[in-house]
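User: Design a sequence. Structure:
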């Protein structure tokens, strides 16, 4: 089976403002493959979200290259689903119904009801709500369900469990579990060690924009000194 993958080759990136420029990534070479889940970790400001934006095709690197596809293809235009740390950044419409309609057309109501039910949300009571008026937890679950309803082959989640109580956290994990298969690529930015333990896979630690460590997630979770060094405990 050909595995979906994203390859970052010598990727560097600077965010440029009117007054200054900020170096977010420096010479990052990394391959993420659907063979196993992947985590991006590291201190705040280490470049994790920038790497996710580049991997999703929403930002082009200042230097280096990014390719995406299967081991049998050099490139692929397959869309990547990205759920931002702040889910309101994903919403563009004035109701949840319209968010699903923009993606699914006439089938939106049935699709939305089915996917929101997976995270124990009642679509009938939410359909005409403005996305910005729901709770932060509901917004996070709705954003994840919306993206997964498109059946993407690649999913990137930025701090997916932040701010979720145990009940809603369980709903989200079950939603991800129901989507994840051997041929789908899951990438998560997180400081949630329980989430990392649940999925295992591989972890890639960024520090000051550079790839500082990469290896099996269980190895990192056993290394208390390294966890402390990179702000994970």
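Assistant: Done.
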């Amino acid at each position: 089976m050909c595995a979906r993958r994203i390859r970052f080759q010598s990727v560097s990136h600077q965010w440029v403002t009117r007054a200054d420029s900020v170096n977010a990534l420096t010479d990052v070479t990394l391959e993420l493959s659907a063979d196993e889940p992947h985590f991006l970790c590291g201190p705040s400001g280490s470049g994790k979200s920038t790497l996710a934006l580049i991997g999703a095709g929403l930002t082009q690197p200042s230097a280096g290259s990014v390719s995406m596809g299967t081991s049998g293809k050099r490139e692929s235009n397959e869309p990547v689903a990205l759920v931002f740390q702040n889910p309101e950044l994903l919403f563009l419409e004035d109701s949840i119904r319209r968010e699903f309609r923009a993606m699914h057309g006439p089938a939106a109501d049935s699709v939305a009801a089915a996917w929101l039910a997976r995270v124990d949300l009642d679509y009938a009571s939410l359909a005409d709500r403005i996305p910005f008026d729901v709770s932060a937890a509901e917004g996070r679950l709705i954003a994840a369900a919306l993206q997964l309803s498109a059946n993407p082959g690649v999913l990137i989640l930025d701090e997916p469990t932040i701010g979720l109580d145990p009940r809603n956290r369980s709903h989200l994990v079950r939603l991800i579990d129901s989507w994840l298969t051997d041929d789908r690529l899951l990438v998560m930015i997180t400081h949630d060690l329980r989430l990392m333990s649940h999925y295992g896979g591989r972890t890639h630690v960024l520090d000051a924009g550079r790839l500082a460590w990469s290896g099996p997630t269980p190895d990192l979770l056993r290394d208390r000194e390294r966890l402390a060094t990179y702000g994970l405990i």
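The chain has nine helices and nine strands. Residues 1-79+154-160+185-233 form a domain with the Rossmann fold fold (CATH 3.40.50.300).
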